[in-house]
Amino acid sequence: MSDAETVMSGQETKIVIAGFGGQGVVVAGNIIARACVIEGRNVTGMISYGAEMRGGTANATVVISEGEIASPVVETPDMAIIMNQPSLDKFEPVIAGGGLLILNTSLVDRRPHRDDLRAVQIAASQIAHELGNVRVANIVALGAFIRKTKLLRPASVEQAIADLFASKKAALVELNIRALNEGMARLVEAS
Amino acid sequence: MKILLKGNEVMCEAAIQAGCRFFAGYPITPQNEVPEYMSHRMPAVGGAFVQAESEIAAINMLFGASAAGARCMTSSSSPGISLKQEGISYITAAELPCVIANMQRGGPGLGNIRASQADYWQAVKGGGHGDYRLIVLGPSTLPELYTLTMNAFDYADHYRNPVLILGDGILGQMAEPVELTPYAPVVDLPEKDFVLDGCAGRKPRVIKTLYLRPALELVHRNELLQAKYDKISSELSLFEEIETADAELIVAAYGITARIAKGAVRTARRNGLKVGMIRPITLWPFPEEPFMRAARTAEKFLVVEMSNGQFIEDVKLATACRRPVEFLGKGGGWYPTPEAIFEKISTMCEKSLAD
Amino acid sequence: MEFERPTTLLETRTHYCPGCGHGIVHRLVAEVIDELGIRERTIGTAPVGCAVLLYDYFNCDIIECAHGRPPAVATGLKRVLPDRIVFTYQGDGDLAAIGTSETIHTANRGENITAIFVNNAVYGMTGGQMAPTTLLGQSTTTSPDGRGLNHEGPPLKVCELLASLDGVTYLERVAVSTAKDTIKARKAIRKAFVNQIEGKGYSLVEVLSMCPTDWKLSPQQGVDFVNHQMKKVFPLGVYKDRS
Amino acid sequence: MADIKIDKDRCKGCCLCVAECPRGNIRMAELLNDAGQPYAEIVDTDNCTGCALCCQMCPDLAIAIGPKKPAPDKAPGSV
Questions:
Q1: D43: contact with C, CB 8 A cutoff
Q2: Domain housing B50
Q3: Are B326 and B301 in contact (CB under 8 A)?
Q4: Is D51 part of any domain?
Q5: Given pLDDT bands bounded at 50, 70 and 90, which one contains residue A191?
Q6: C and B touching (3 or more beta-carbon pairs closer than 8 Å)
Q7: Strand, helix or coil at B148?
Q8: CATH classification at residue D7
Q9: Of B234, B265, B296, which marks where a domain is finished?
Q10: Which residues constitute the domain of residue D39?
């Protein structure tokens, strides 16, 4: 870590959510950002877009800060929600030292190579499947994320989910909130 | 209440709040959310949305819509803006108000879809043919994109001139909470006495840009336009200054780059470095006054831009080259990190101490 | 039979050459506007080409456009003011070369406008260069040996081309090379305006017209060229009518 | 007999009217108009039926035909 990074860090929390298209990484990023708005915090969000989006991995990044956010572009995330193996390969090298990984062990088949990272395991896709819809794996992982980081209040995340799916069926909101709670309950600290 | 929207959507909502009732555009990344958003919002507010067959058609549809009296807008990204230059020249010559957004991407050519600021010259110096000027606004956050887009319609109507919102792929694609405040005009809005709506109860009107006879008619026409541009220059100058009073080093940047640079300037201050920043908000007219002032007190300048040295020329002009101006920038989709800018600032400050 | 200047045309003498068909087409359009009583709610678009000075002759609101762009400008006008009458007046270069894209898409969107297309098989204003509608073998300043099938390709047939578009309401090709043709042309132009008034969509009237100067012919020979050469390549008639 | 008039100063001398007149009742004048153009003139006003074919072909609106003079046995305004 350069001197500059040392000087700059500490004010902003930079998060990446990465997986393959269809795993809901953009939705997960959106929920985190909306929860921040509910809590009155400064936040920016970005997603990979256009041709990039069709290239395999999709990712969303969120920056949260108590002060002004300088760049919405995240190069060295402090935290990563990793939904599949290619995303671990892509992001592990760029996570800030001491950073946190939330690993979807259903689709990530190795441990991180770096020993300066913390990791939490959650069988997000498996749990989502048990809940009846594999597409809520993102929310299961999100549950593990907020339980581990305590960055957001569960109530604000639940509110964000309710807001986001307001136009959809009530059952969908309920399923996502169950997924969130399962994720909070079933995370495993990596040894 | 703040809501979370993407930059492209923030801009659309601001336009609608400001009474924009005609939008024509053509999809191009990274501004696709604009036509998508407008396609459902425009009809909902009783306006018209047209997905044009080309950027050329889109800007010419604005030529017609503006002549018909509507507040109107088009948006695109760099290669598409190049195509619009013909229409922009005509609209400027005809003195019709409209708002054009450029969410810049990497160039030249098809380039890439990453953010860029390489259309600065095209925006502030020309692009189309003839001696004309666009009012160019460079928002650096989404709340500012919201207010400046509403203001853009006012400036366009007030000066009867197209206003260009010079954004970039990051600004268009990022999401940030924005308070959707109600629209209120920021300048006097003259009656539109040029509108073509049929000549009932009045003499027929002509909107034209051809001046063949007498021989000097176009010269006089140009003189009138230049007088208007002089008036705009004397009246419109928007900028943000950060800790410039005692600054030894002044960072100059606009748009998203300025937002990123601001983080670096704050860090520099926390580290005891006497660094300030000037962020032009109107890129044309260029706010020369804060630069002239800073050139008297600061020792040197640093320009940061996402292009290979375009904006720097205006900084050098505004400071009359009285102080050294260093450069941090690249084209083609490169963007600076706050860390990289801080490192450059540190190096420049150390060099000052060594001198 | 009375015959007087329509009020939609100003007294101004036109800049057109002796025997040029534009003057006739201007009159026909103006007469139709008069007859339908729509002068005070009509907005015309002027092209680039010989008819660029349209605004000096028509006694109604006019916007002069970039080359080929009148259909796009008309789209903007009409979408903002759907109860006004909007027409484009375009030559072959404007409508069928530089503005082909705007023409096709405006037609296919079924924009409720009226297009008057003056086809004289040559570029008049710039001095007699080849047009998209120049006939095979016809020599121009940029096809000095005559338009060739292999290099320049055959002439573009606008009515035939647009007839394949489902969005189009009415297409007719007429001429102004005889008095009888002129009377028919007026009827077609009238229908194209009535369609718009009735909200029926895109109508285009292609008018075969004379350009004796750039054809290097006398006015009488110009009329003969339309009657004996152009009509063979561009047959007159209704190409589409779903009004 | 029709009330036909040719405005010689609007005429550009293209002769399209001359060719169109079914009665051969239009010819080119020997003099030039104010614009230095040859212009068309009516041979015999009494010989004009008011068919207006000449007007149809005139690109310069130089020919006007006024209302037909009422026949002596009909009152003005009657059909």
A1: no
A2: 2-187+225-234
A3: yes
A4: yes
A5: low
A6: yes
A7: helix
A8: 3.30.70.20
A9: B234
A10: 3-66
Instruction: Report yes or no on chains A and D touching (3+ CB pairs under 8 A).
Output: no
pLDDT tens-digit series, residues A143-160: 999 999 999 999 999 999
Q: What is the pLDDT of residues C69-83, one digit of tens each?
A: 999 999 999 999 999
For the residues B9-35, what does the mean pLDDT come to? Answer: 97
Question: Do B305 and B183 fall within a single domain?
Answer: no
Cα R_g (chain C), whole angstroms: 17
Tell me if A37 and B29 make a contact (CB, 8 A cut-off).
Answer: no
Is residue D79 one of the residues assigned to a domain?
no
Is B209 in a helix, a strand, or coil?
Answer: coil
Min distance B201 CA to chain A CA atoms (Å): 50
CA distance C78 to C86: 6
Q: Chain B contact for A75, CB < 8 A?
A: yes
Residues 6+ apart with CB under 8 A from C100: C68, C132, C156
CATH code of residue A46: 3.40.920.10
- Looking at the structure, tell me whether residues B229 and B274 fall in a common domain: no
- Is D68 touching C (CB cutoff 8 A)? yes
How many domains in chain D?
A: 1
CATH classification code of C22-241: 3.40.50.970
Q: Is D75 part of a structural domain of the chain?
A: no
Report chain C residues whose CB lies below 8 A from the CB of D1.
none
Among A7, A43, A75, beta carbon nearest to B342: A7
Closest CA–CA distance from residue A72 to any residue of chain B (Å): 7
Measured CA to CA, the distance from residue D69 to residue D72 in angstroms comes to 9
- pLDDT surpasses 90 at A108: yes
User: Can you tell me the distance from the alpha carbon of C163 to that of C64, in angstroms, rounded to the nearest whole number?
Assistant: 27
CB contact under 8 Å between A46 and B260, yes or no, is no
């760029």: which residue's tokens? Answer: A94
B193 found inside a domain: no
- Indicate the pairing of strand B239-242 with strand B71-76: unpaired
pLDDT digits (tens, 9 = 90+) for C122-175: 999 999 999 999 999 999 999 999 999 999 999 999 999 999 999 999 999 999
Q: Per CB distance under 8 Å, which residues of C are interface residues toward D?
A: 1-5, 9, 13-14, 16-24, 27, 176, 178-179, 182-183, 212, 219-220, 223
Distance (Å) from the alpha carbon of C64 to chain B's nearest alpha carbon: 5
**Residue ranges in chain C modelled with pLDDT below 70:** 1
Flag if B175 and A33 touch (Cβ within 8 Å): yes
As a whole number, mean pLDDT of residues A51-59 equals 62
Q: Is the CB of residue C21 less than 8 Å from the CB of residue C120?
A: yes
Residue A155's domain spans which residues?
3-189
| Domain match, B316 and B251 both | yes
Whether residue B168 sits in one domain with residue B148: yes
Which residue of chain C comes nearest to D53, CA vs CA? C179
Domain total for chain B?
A: 2
Segment B243-259 shows an average pLDDT of 98
| Shared domain check, B176 and B140 | yes
A30 in B contact zone (CB under 8 Å): yes
- Give the single-character DSSP code of C149: T
Same domain? For B245 and B229 the reply is: no
Question: Do the Cβ atoms of B151 and B83 come closer than 8 Å?
Answer: no
Count of domains forming chain A: 1
Q: In chain B, positions 64-93, which contact chain C (CB-CB < 8 Å)?
A: 64-70, 72, 86-87, 90
CA angle A9, A13, A18 (to 5 degrees): 125
C-alpha distance from C184 to closest chain D C-alpha (Å): 11
- My answer on whether B146 and B13 are in the same domain is yes
What's chain B's average pLDDT?
97
* Residue B20 pLDDT > 90: yes
B150/B271 same-domain check: no
**Which tokens in the block code for residue B202?**
């009045």
Token code pair at residue C122: 């040559």
Cis-peptide, bond into residue A154, ω within 30° of zero: no
Banded pLDDT at D70 (limits 50, 70, 90) = low
